[in-house]
Amino acid sequence: MSDALQIGAVGSTITTSATSTRIAIPVNSAGVKPGYLRIASNAYAFVKIGDSTVTATGNDILLQPNDELCIVVSGNTHVAAIQDSAAGKVNVIALDNS
């Protein structure tokens, strides 16, 4: 992956709550599953990637407000998020980087 993020497609946003919510990983600008995701949050949230049954808990990756995570998609198909103490938005963007 190069130093600059290459983003050419619209992502998805999860509105977090006290219950884990999952979405399918968005496709990149070529219309295929990306190699990498950029995940960012405007509030404390926990995230996890996995299959169509993935559930986030308070033991998963913590995103702080205005923090971002670039993660390898590998064989995963979904992203799940859950709030820490207050609702927020977790933005999931497919990267065009290979």
Describe this structure in words.
By secondary structure, the chain is mainly β. The protein has strands at 12-15, 21-24, 36-41, 45-50, 61-63, 67-72, 78-83, 89-95. The chain has a domain at 27-92.
**How far apart lie the N and C ends?**
6 Å
Average of the residue pLDDT scores: 92
Task: Show unreliable segments.
Answer: none
Largest sheet: 4 strands, antiparallel
Trace the largest sheet across and list its strands: 1-8-3-6
Structural class: mainly beta
Features:
single chain; 98 residues; mainly beta; four-stranded antiparallel sheet; 8 strands; globular
Layout of secondary structure:
Blueprint: E1 12-15, E2 21-24, E3 36-41, E4 45-50, E5 61-63, E6 67-72, E7 78-83, E8 89-95
Antiparallel strand pairs: 1-8, 2-7, 3-6, 3-8, 4-5, 4-7
Quick structural summary:
This protein is 0% helix and 43% strand. It is an all-beta fold.
